[in-house]
Amino acid sequence: MKLLPKSFRSDFERILDPIYGACFAFNPNASRMTYRAGMKSGLRILADVQFETMLGKEYSFFPTTQTVGLRIRISGKNIDPAMESYGIPVATGAQTKIGLKLTEIKRMKRPYGICVEKHSKETFYPNHKYTLDVCMRSCSQRRIVETCGCAHPRYGIPMNARICGTEAQDCLLGLRENRSWNPLAECKCNPSCDEIQYYTTISLGRYHVGFTY
């Protein structure tokens, strides 16, 4: 972020992810628009992924990190990133091109169908739009809080809830190994009445170190 010109820093918003650490959302306020299709009118990012800091003494990744690379999530405004579920892995030393196809879905309400109105269902993601995934994640968090007495950091945190520590590891593992719990039946989550989905097409190529934009 420090290497970006000041005029571009407002285009990025820093997000802390419990699994991937520091993430950055581009164009969070939807202030930048493109009106043409094609690769030349899209977003280009050149990322320098360094495993160590400039001093070479501290690691820039978690001790549990198994691979080095990037993870990209494409979504609309105020959508929970859910990087572990919808993130696109991008390898180092490669040029990744992602094509997008936007599909807008409008579902029929009762009595013709079952869907959830905007913000009509309470979740643990107050600043994000309602989605089926947000409902399922909130339901899982509610189950963890009721059983273990703490909140898992990978899900939305309820107000005044305590974050689970190492002392809750056995309880969390017990919930994960419980095969009798059926989230589809017990969570009673339904899709949103208005939804936008992005379908992606990915192509990879070897990145040439002498190539410049």
UniProtKB/TrEMBL annotation:
Entry-linked InterPro entries: ENaC (IPR001873)
Compartments where located: Membrane
Annotated membrane topology: Multi-pass membrane protein
GO CC terms, sorted: plasma membrane
One matching Pfam family: ASC
Record bears the keyword Transmembrane helix: yes
GO molecular function, one term: ligand-gated sodium channel activity
Keywords in alphabetical order: Glycoprotein, Ion channel, Ion transport, Membrane, Sodium, Sodium channel, Sodium transport, Transmembrane, Transmembrane helix, Transport
Top-rank taxon, per record: Eukaryota
Family according to the record: Belongs to the amiloride-sensitive sodium channel (TC 1.A.6) family.
Protein name: Amiloride-sensitive sodium channel
